Known about the structure:
Blueprint: H1 13-21, H2 23-35, E1 37-38, H3 43-56, E2 64-67, H4 74-89, E3 94-99, H5 102-118, H6 120-125, E4 130-131, E5 139-142, E6 147-152, E7 178-181, H7 192-205, E8 217-221, H8 229-235, E9 239-242, E10 246-247, H9 249-259, H10 267-270, E11 279-280, H11 288-295, H12 308-315, E12 333-335, E13 344-350, E14 362-370, E15 373-382, H13 386-400, E16 404-408, H14 413-422, E17 427-430, H15 436-448, E18 452-455, H16 463-472, H17 480-492, E19 497-500, E20 503-506, H18 510-517, E21 529-530, H19 540-545
Parallel strand pairs: 2-8, 2-9, 3-6, 3-7, 7-8, 12-18, 13-16, 15-18, 16-17
Antiparallel strand pairs: 1-21, 4-5, 5-6, 10-11, 13-14, 14-15, 19-20
Helix pairs in contact: 1-2, 3-4, 3-9, 4-5, 13-14, 15-17
Amino acid sequence: xxxxxxxxxxxTDVEKLFVKSDYMxxxxxxxxxxYGFNFQQNWHFQIISHKLEDIITTISTKDTxxxxxxxxxxxxxxxxxxxxxxxxxDPSNKMIVTSYTLAPVAENFTAQAKAILxxxxxxxxxxxxxxxxxxxxxxxxTTAKGEVLAVGTGGSVTGFRAGSGKxxxxxxxxxxxxxxxxxxxxxxxxxxAALNKATDFQSETLKSRKxxxxxxxxxxxxxxxxxDPSGWAIAAGWDHLSIPAILTFEELRDFCNDIGINPRDTRxxxxxxxxxxxYPLWPWKMTLNDHREDRGDFVSEGIEGVGSFVFSGQYMxxxxxxxxxxxxxxxxxxxxxxxxxxQFKIITMDTAWDEKTxxxxxxxxCWGYTPGGIYLLDQWRKKVEFSMLQKxxxxxxxxxxxxxxxxxxxxxxxxxxxxxxNEMIPVDAVTPSxxxxxxxxxxxxxxxxxxxxxxEENMYPWVVKFTEETEKFPVxxxxxxxxxLVMAVxxxxxxxxxxxxxxxxxxxxxxxxxxxxxxxxxYDVFGLQPSKKTTKETNPWLAATGL
Length: 547
């Protein structure tokens, strides 16, 4: 009887063949060896695995864009895993890995792939001879002349091409790829300059970095805008795989049919809502109620969701049109009587240069803070010369006597700030670190959650114009009222706790919002449960795979 050989990976030679020939099995085994955790399987991993196998076996030679919600292990499954797997299959492959920034994101992807390649269990699967002359995170080589290079969006790729001229019996095999993981930072996705930079990098720089036209490009990201790099890729005819956080039964059934499983056997179906026709993508990670809370359907345990605008794009892969939609009039609460529990007031100001050279109005808004939300109490809006604006600002302060006046520290605001200080009026000069649209996105969840109150339309004549402008933002003619609104929400809501119907609602701070928007999947480990057993004691993975 032939002796069974078990190497450092814990697999027999026959089992190694199975693992090496199936990307899904490879991923599950890699995870067990790398982390000591049991892989938490879900059908969407099989969908992605099949798509990637079509690419590396050259069944599909089209460039591919994959849209999937943040936090669902896209980087581990696609960027890091595929790099290690295909470099193991052929150490002469040449790959480019990109993300919105080189450090720490893109270079961490390549560093993790290199760590996998050099691990003893992986070397037992794939003998990959590493070139020790390159120790940088962003660039490593093999002695078989293979290379992997990390690049940030807009970075230089001069002198390097993905893929090679290798042929087998006159056919070009897979020889490498260009993988882009989040080409655009979520917190910068509404800025025109950042959008253009990310799209140009894909359409111009990376397009020219293929050794030959059949070298595949793979882009993976959540949708951020209709005109984000995904939108460009889809319009350019790339193969498109879109996986939303909440599926209809028809969508779930179609995905399951593609991989030959019964949708009713999935945890998505079992934990879905048949009456509402809503089924969670990966309920082990996020339940349907988790998604509904993020969508803004309700608030529980005092935690506010991401808001419908962000949820629609980043989670459902259906970005709202750039014709507006960030702030919706229906989300404002209305009042007909000013509440008697206002604790303090502030004034926010958006100033124009002067009535002749600026299309925008100058605007002042007075806001009141209560334990249950904030109230727009009054608004002044006119086109005036600078001297008149100074006088109006002092008069408006004397009318309301707020705790402070908030003015943006740029353009004519600088002069107003100095004038108010000379009048001994408390002024907070703010210098925004983000563009207008991104600031509005920070404010939108608080508005959608019902913490912002505006007057009934019959109370003041300016209310109609206010709501019209907010609905049209960011493509309307004016945005001065929105600027004041956003300043007030950021000042009075973010980082605060509101008491609504006896429930304490904790609003994220600006720093926490930034962290959420910048969240990367680079270190997401599929959300696994710790295994009590090590590879030396037992091999539970083998029983799960049926090998």
